[in-house]
Amino acid sequence: MTHDPNCIFCKIVAGQIPSKKVFEDEDLIVFHDIHPWAPVHILIVPKAHIVSHAELTEEHQALAGKMMVLAPRLMKELGVTGGFRTVINTGRDGGQEVMHLHMHVMGGPRPWSKG
Ligand code: 5GP
Ligand code: ZN
């Protein structure tokens, strides 16, 4: 599995940086965002170092589908009943700050700090 020793999310995958983990399997890790924009704000992260959504190809279809399907399941498990927002920032102009693919999933009662 691809791993970038300088990448903060690869370090979280490797357990070198602590995180508040909500889910983990062989392909994905999910943890709470350190600066939440909403009462519940998790990041669904592939364990492999994929830089961004722009790098996804047909070989990633199952992985991408798994990320998408996991979001509602985890929101339900975390007690989010009023809906949620999913965001994937891609590249510089997409506002991506951590260059390791991740899906933000945010929910909980409004108002939220962003939006
Ligand atoms: P981006 O702008 O790349 O889509 O979002 C990166 C997100 O990762 C931000 O919301 C930021 O708060 C979160 N983040 C950055 N570093 C860490 C960290 O070390 N731990 C956790 N849990 N979240 C982080
Ligand atoms: Zn990485």
Automatic annotation (TrEMBL):
Residue ranges occupied by any HIT domain in the UniProt entry: 8-115
SUPFAM superfamilies in the cross-refs: HIT-like (SSF54197)
PROSITE patterns noted in UniProt: HIT_1, HIT_2
Residue ranges that the Swiss-Prot or TrEMBL entry lists as coiled coil: none
Active site: 102
GO MF annotations in UniProt: catalytic activity
Sequence motif Histidine triad motif, residues: 100-104
InterPro entries: Histidine_triad_CS, Histidine_triad_HIT, HIT-like, HIT-like_sf
PANTHER family hit by this protein: HISTIDINE TRIAD HIT PROTEIN
The name this protein goes by in its record: Histidine triad (HIT) family protein
